[in-house]
Amino acid sequence: MHVPRDIALSNARKADGIVKSVAGSTVVFPSHRLVFLHQSLSSSLATVNAVAWAPRVYSSVEWRQGEACFYAWILGSSRGRAAAFRWRWDALFQLPSESSIVLVAVARIIHQMHAAPVDSFLGGLQAELWSESRAHPGAWMCGALRWWAWCFDLYTGGPRMRWMEGVYGHVLSMADVDRDELHAVVKQKVGERRFSDAAARLRGLVITYKSYDFVPKLFVEEGIFLGPLTGVTCTRFSLQAICKVLYGGLPLARARAHYDRKEQLIAAGICDDLRRVCLFCLLTRNICVMESEWHFIFHCPLYTDLRTGSLFRRRAAEVVSEHCSFPRPYSILFRTLPLCIKEPTLANQLGSFIRLSLRAREGWLEETVRGGLHIGPIVCNNAHVYCNTVEFANGVASSL
Fold first, then answer.
1. CA 316/CA 342 separation, integer angstroms
2. What average pLDDT does range 182-201 have in this prediction?
3. Strand pairing of 227-228 and 93-94?
4. Residue 48 φ/ψ, nearest 5 degrees
């Protein structure tokens, strides 16, 4: 089953209904000008309402709840809290943004008011809104222009009227552009700004190999952006699987440290950073390597029989040895995941592999841990030492 755009993004776009509801309202800002209301102006007034209310809608409880439901669905975990997670999406994906639609409406309505006769309703409305903006920082005109300036990265410091007039002139210069072209330009600018802000926040965090944000940081440092999420047409589970790989949602030891079997592992001498190793490779091959997303998908011999299909045949020649420190083993993710985003067949193969491999992993862990773990003291000590090295943090394997 494929994920149509309206289903995959329905929860993340709940505020769209709120905006449309407000846009259909007859309450105009300022409201006392209702005496001039005429049927022919209803569309323009609706636009004014939508633009005036949009910033409040995007910060509303309904919008946050809608986004949280979407993130929780896509990741299948509690990491779906929108306030803490939305910006992380912007570092890798471009989500449909109602703000681009409203920013186009800003240009259109300002242009209509600017071109209207002074003694007309729209001319009088502009004069009143402009006067209100001069007096009140929170006025509609002021907020809309700040929003536009953020999108196009225009200067908004210094005296308010100076930057307002500059941004106002820029809005008017863009308003005569064809509607579709204007929408495309604004959408691109919104995406660029969101990505820029998210990348800056990501770089400002202290992120180690144990962090959920480790993979996004690798992608940002490599300059890889995966593009519009609406372009993904794979199955629901495959889309979830890809996002879990990208955002640390897989139950692997790199970020989870076998937390569900902590007591049994400590009893066997597996504690601290050693809990982040691949237990199968440690117990059966005497190899110490972090159980990372790239090890799980491309290297671990436990899942060799499950690596079928064109995805793994095409990547076989590109898989870097885990024992090689340069280039890093995780570089295979940079080539594989963007392809899965573009080609539904490869995405579905990856999703199927992850589903079957997680089942095999859980079965092996349950059987092995229940029977008791037995690791030689020399192997255990050497593994503890290696877990504190930079090579281990980069996912490089070492024979013990």
1. 19
2. 90
3. parallel
4. -60, -45
pLDDT at 27: 52
CA distance 116 to 111: 8
Phi, psi of 288 (to 5 degrees): -100, 120
Unique residue bearing structure tokens 């993979």: 215
Q: Which two tokens stand for residue 138?
A: 């929170």
Report for 87-101, 115-129, 314-328, 385-399: range of highest mean pLDDT: 385-399
**Which H or E run includes 228?**
strand 227-228
CB 174 within 8 A of CB 182: yes
CB 93 within 8 A of CB 8: no
Q: What is the pLDDT of residue 82?
A: 63
Contact 171, 130 (CB under 8 A): no
Q: Is 290 helix (H, G, I), strand (E, B) or coil?
A: strand
How many whole angstroms separate alpha carbon 157 and alpha carbon 177? 27
Residue with tokens 């004069």: 127
CA 392 from centroid of its chain's CA atoms: 27
> Within a 10 A sphere around the Cβ of 289, how many other Cβ atoms?
26
| Assigned token pair, 234 | 């794979």
Residue 32: HSE in the Cβ half-sphere, 13 Å Cα cutoff: 3
State in Å, rounded, how far the first CA of the chain is from the last one: 46
